[in-house]
Amino acid sequence: PNYGVKDPHTGDHKSQHGVRDGDAVKGYYTVADPDGTLRTVHYTADDHNGFNAVVEKSGHAVHPQVYGEVHNGYYH
User: Fold this and answer.
1) Strand locations in 1-76, DSSP E?
2) Which of 21, 22, 33, 51 is deepest in the core (most CB within 10 A)?
3) Distance in angstroms (rounded) separating the CA atoms of residues 29 and 14
């Protein structure tokens, strides 16, 4: 089964594609991580080798800058 979700309101972005050849399955799925990177997992599974996955990340992680008040050397 193949599917995709891209919801700009919730930020939920993901997709999946897989194919079966007898007892073997292969495919990939993607997930947009909260840090702004895209994670792609390529996988294969069969009776002989079990489940195997290769994970790739693309893009640049973005983290919000945190500001706080400093009093006597401590953040509050």
Assistant:
1) 3-7, 12-21, 24-32, 38-46, 50-58, 70-71, 74-75
2) 33
3) 7
CATH class of 3-75: mainly beta
- At a CB cut-off of 8 Å and minimum separation 6, what does 46 contact? 23, 24, 25
* Amino acid (one-letter) located at 27: G
8-state DSSP, 49: T
What is the residue type of 50?
G
